[in-house]
Design a protein that fits this description.
The protein has helices spanning about 15-45, 45-50, 55-75, 85-100, 100-110, 110-130, 145-160, 205-225, 225-235, 255-275, 285-310, 315-335, 340-365. By secondary structure, it is mainly alpha-helical. The chain has one domain. The chain is globular.
Length: about 375
């Protein structure tokens, strides 16, 4: 080595150091996007809590329309990635489950409803990714034991929440006359009905059972709705597949999925109008909350899919599903006073701690 060679005094960053730095940065970006998604998802049902929505179908359609509008703007920003109709199937599945959300919130409350469907969404979404169900590739993580334990604890937290009793107010704020419904008697005066919705007339125990059962079904549908996107991505490298060359970025499929949401919700709303003889229960107070709910959900989806670019779904799924359930439970217990009493609060805190522990284990299974 010559006297002028000073390379030994200028150490270069090794490949391992660079990779570690990149992994840490990606983890930070992914975790940050996940946190925003958790806050938005956990708060998306809050606008419906304090308003009267009747049977909730109109609120459901308005929120789905807002989801589609936001995704149209997102599609323009992303310069219109290639549209795959199969991704619409996932949106249609989500819309099918979402039609029961108002019923669930009326039956068992915001906190318990979201916690239950979040847990079963976790069960379906995590297992389909981990074990390669429905024709998608098996996803692995560097520390599978931590991932298994994390997902198990997240699911356990949801099961613990079954034991939390909620105090639900059926009619938070009544709107005296819903739009587009004839409630005139022969005398020309308005006659309010004894019950705005079938779930209101059911006893407390049966209402709780129906609400929990619907929450389980909705959770399974929510967990399945992302499978078509994963299927497209997993077949993007197969030359014989119609999906060859498809984008590997989840965020490129948001618009197609949300188109499926809007088409399915509009179809259901049209059927509902026909069943109601063109006299659906439409409450004006539900319009702005419906748009706000759809806005938060759509932005939360963009954040979640963005997180999947930095972390795989085995990590993001437990974090999001457990996290937004805890956020919703905090809204329900602290703001809407759904959870009362020392025993209920103790069970809630236990379940929340178990869920957060599972979330952290899932996150750190990346390393």
């Amino acid at each position: 080595m010559s006297d002028n060679d000073t390379s030994e005094f200028c150490p270069l960053e090794t490949v391992d150091d660079f990779n570690n730095s990149t992994n840490t940065t990606n983890f930070a970006y992914g975790l940050g996007a996940n946190i925003v998604a958790v806050l938005l998802y956990g708060s998306s049902a809050v606008p419906v809590k304090k308003i009267e929505t009747g049977d909730g179908v109109f609120f459901y359609w308005v929120s789905c329309a807002a989801i589609w509008v936001v995704s149209m703007l997102g599609d323009l920003v992303l310069q219109s990635p290639k549209f795959y109709p199969l991704a619409m199937l996932g949106g249609a599945i989500w819309a099918t489950g979402n039609i029961a959300v108002v019923t669930i919130i009326k039956a068992i409350g915001l906190s318990l409803g979201i916690l239950i469907w979040g847990s079963f969404s976790l069960l379906m979404g995590w297992t389909s990714s981990r074990f390669g169900w429905f024709g998608i590739a098996v996803q692995d993580v560097p520390r599978p034991l931590l991932n298994y334990c994390g997902a198990g604890l997240c699911l356990l937290s949801g099961l613990i929440f079954f034991f939390v009793k909620t105090d639900v107010q059926l009619h938070p704020k009544k709107e005296s006359i819903p739009l587009l419904i004839d409630r005139m008697t022969n005398s020309g005066s308005y006659r309010p009905r004894s019950s705005e919705f079938w779930i209101d007339a059911i006893g407390t125990k049966n209402r709780r059972f129906i609400g929990c059962l619907l929450a389980v079904v909705v959770g399974l549908l929510y967990g399945f709705c992302f499978v078509p996107i994963l299927y497209i991505q997993n077949h993007s490298t197969c030359k014989g597949s119609i999906f060859y060359g498809a984008s590997v970025y989840d965020i490129d499929y948001v618009y197609a999925q949300n188109c499926g949401i809007f088409v399915a919700s509009t179809t259901y709303f049209t059927i509902y109008c026909a069943v109601m003889n063109s006299k659906p229960r439409i409450y004006s107070r539900a319009i702005l909350p419906g748009f706000l709910s759809g806005l938060m959900w759509s932005l939360g989806t963009y954040c979640w899919f963005l997180a999947n670019n930095y972390l795989n779904s085995l990590i993001t799924y437990p974090i999001v599903t457990a996290g937004y359930g805890v956020v919703a439970a905090l809204w329900g217990s602290l703001v809407f006073q759904e959870i009362k009493g020392f025993t209920n609060c103790s069970i809630f805190l236990l379940a929340a701690c178990v869920g957060m522990t599972g979330t952290f284990l899932s996150a750190f299974s990346k390393f």
